[in-house]
Structures are given as structure tokens and as C-alpha cells.
Amino acid sequence: MKILMVCLGNICRSPLAHGILQHLADKENLGWQVHSAGTGNWHVGNPPDRRSVLAARNLGYEIGAQRARHFSPSFFDEYDHILVMDKNNLKDVLALAETNEHKQKVRLFLVDEGEVTDPYYDNDLFGPVSLEVEQRCKEILEELRG
Questions:
Q1: Closest by CA position to 40, among listed 21, 14, 2
Q2: Rounded to whole angstroms, how far apart are CA atoms 60 and 101?
Q3: Which residues, including other chains, have CB under 8 Å from residue 38's CB and lie 6 or more apart?
Q4: 88-130 pLDDT, tens digit each
Q5: If you ran DSSP here, which 8-state letter would residue 68 be given?
């Protein structure tokens, strides 16, 4: 299974989700491939925000080797599930989908129309956001492994 996590710049939220879900899937030997991308291209090639790296490390996950990528329409054919962090990301990704099959792969990361708060402008949000992402990754693991 291939899963793509998407946020705005691919340096805060989606790298957390990418690293945490990949770690959990590897721990269970599921053979999943988890990646991440951003709807914006400002940070392409950069590592995750140092605050996300630290928040992940505090939970026991290492995400520092990741590099930001820009979302590409080709990802619709590459991934089974595309999970986005907020409604703006959802709108931006769905605008690139050319078929209903592509659109059906895209959904919000959180359930019930929930959005993962972007912690970029508030240092104090990285801890709570990382915990929220970790909890949801555990739920996604249970949902998708069938």
C-alpha cells in the first residue's frame, strides 16, 4: 500500500504524519510505503522544520532525513490513499484530480471534517499537533490494515 500525506509546505504536519505512520507500519512489517508532499513549492528539497523534527524525536520518531516535495498530479496514479491536513489542502489537491477515481483517493487526514492545525507560526503548537498526528496515525493503521 502506498499512502501520501499532504500539507501546505511539506515541512511541518505532513512530515510528521509521513514519519510516524511509516514507523508504525514498519514495526508491524506491513510493507507500506508512506511519503509526503506539499501543495506549495516554497520548501522543495528542504528538511522538515526543526520544530517538527524535535516534536517527532520527543515521541520516538526520526523524520530529519525527509525532504520536501511539491504535490504532482502524477501522484494520483502512484498512491492508494492521499490524506490531506486541512480543507485548503483538500481543495487544492482535488482541483488537480482529473477523474473520479483520483478524487476518491483523497480525504482529510482527520475524521469528521477535522483539520490539523498548522503549527508553523506558533512554537507551542508543535507538541500538541505531533500528539494529534500520532494518535490519528495509529487509527489509520488499524483502519487500513484490515
A1: 14
A2: 36
A3: 6, 7, 8, 9, 10, 11, 14, 44, 68, 69, 70, 71
A4: 999 999 999 999 999 999 999 999 889 999 999 999 999 999 9
A5: -
**Phi, psi dihedrals of residue 3, rounded to the nearest 5°:** -125, 135
Number of residues that make up the chain? 146
Closest CA to 108 of 93, 127, 129: 93
Find, among 18, 25, 3, the residue nearest to 116 by Cα.
18
**Would you tell me the crossing angle of helices 126-145 and 13-27 to the nearest 10 degrees?**
40
Show the cell assigned to 97: 484530480
Mention every residue, 6+ apart, whose C-beta is less than 8 A from residue 50: none
Longest CA–CA separation in the chain, Å: 40
Edge-to-edge order in the sheet of strand 33-38: 33-38, 2-7, 81-84, 106-108
Give the Cα separation of 140 and 84 in Å (integer): 13
Which residues does 44 contact at the CB level (< 8 Å), separation at least 6? 10, 38, 68, 69, 70
Phi, psi of 123 (to 5 degrees): -55, -35
What residues are annotated to the active site?
7, 13, 118
pTM of the shown model: 0.97
What is the DSSP pairing of strand 81-84 with strand 2-7?
A: parallel
